[in-house]
Write a structure and sequence with these properties.
Layout lengths: L2 E5 L22 H13 L4 E5 L9 H11 L2 E6 L6 H7 L5 E5 L5 H8 L3 H16 L3 E7 L7 H8 L6 E6 L10 H4 L3 H14 L5 E4 L9 E3 L4 E6 L3 E7 L5 H6 L2
Parallel strand pairs: 1-2, 1-8, 2-3, 3-4, 4-5, 5-6, 6-7
Antiparallel strand pairs: 8-9, 9-10
Helix pairs in contact: 1-2, 4-5
Length: about 260
């Protein structure tokens, strides 16, 4: 395993009904975060995706990125863009390898239907343009659901006008909070595959990737804010496999 996901905090400035994360974990002191960072470094893992919740609203966001930079770990920041301004982007630019953004609609109305907040559209487009000015690597993810199914192609046309490394179409996975809203978002496999085919046949100027969380789950593990380590299985969802404060991360990973 050469990549791990670190959920910096539980707090988020959005409340999306499809969210995969539904654990109520309070923020932890810096010494716990530093222990997690050091454990990641000791494994030889070379890439970390920092997410949450929303990582940018955590008080130690810059400090965590700085620690990973010192260790030579390539860090990807997955953010909803809402907290970002020019100053924050300039601060993190030399500390990261890539920014990962979400865009679930081609207009404000659709993004409100998906994420309940117009800022999820406005700030993402703003940040995409600012990232292009700073020549930072960026990818965009779109969660394909029954709500935005007819708009996904329009999202692709919009992203063709932006400078991004690749665009990922993601299958909705009804786990944690999302399982309570399954009927609101879920598409059947045929509908999802048809949308992907239509998009790939039409959008020719973007690298398009597909994540099939239910049908082709990737083996990975993520670290919660309290140092619990989880893996994912299709039948059980998130499965607790250890805690870094009790067992080394290298041992936990070796036992997966």
């Amino acid at each position: 395993m050469n990549e791990i996901h670190y959920l910096l905090g539980n707090a988020c400035n959005l409340s999306c009904d499809f969210c995969f994360w539904d654990m109520r974990v309070p923020d932890v002191p810096w010494n716990v975060k530093k222990r997690i960072i050091d454990e990641i470094g000791s494994t030889g893992i070379t890439k970390v995706t920092l997410s949450g919740g929303e990582p940018s609203i955590n008080k130690d966001f810059i400090k965590v990125l700085s620690e990973f930079k010192k260790m030579g770990v390539d860090t990807v920041v997955h953010t909803n863009a809402i907290k970002f301004d020019t100053k924050l982007l300039s601060e993190i630019a030399p500390l990261i390898g890539r920014i990962s953004l979400s865009l679930d609609g081609s207009n404000e109305e659709m993004c409100i239907s998906m994420r309940k907040d117009a800022r999820a559209y406005v700030k993402t487009l703003w940040l995409l343009d600012r990232i292009a000015e700073k020549d930072i690597s960026v990818n965009v993810k779109t969660l394909v659901t029954s709500i935005n199914a007819k708009d996904v192609l329009n999202v692709g046309k919009l992203l063709e006008q932006k400078q991004i490394d690749y665009w990922t179409l993601m299958e909705f996975n009804p786990i944690n909070r999302g399982k309570h809203f399954r009927s609101k978002f879920e598409l059947d496999d045929v509908e999802f595959d048809n949308i992907v085919k239509c998009v790939k046949d039409t959008i020719r100027n973007l690298e398009i990737r597909v994540r099939l969380f239910k049908r082709e789950p990737e083996k990975y593990c993520f670290i919660a804010p309290n140092a619990d380590v989880y893996t994912f299985t299709p039948k059980k969802g998130d499965v607790l496999v250890g805690n870094i404060l009790k067992t080394s991360l290298s041992t936990i990973i070796a036992n997966l």
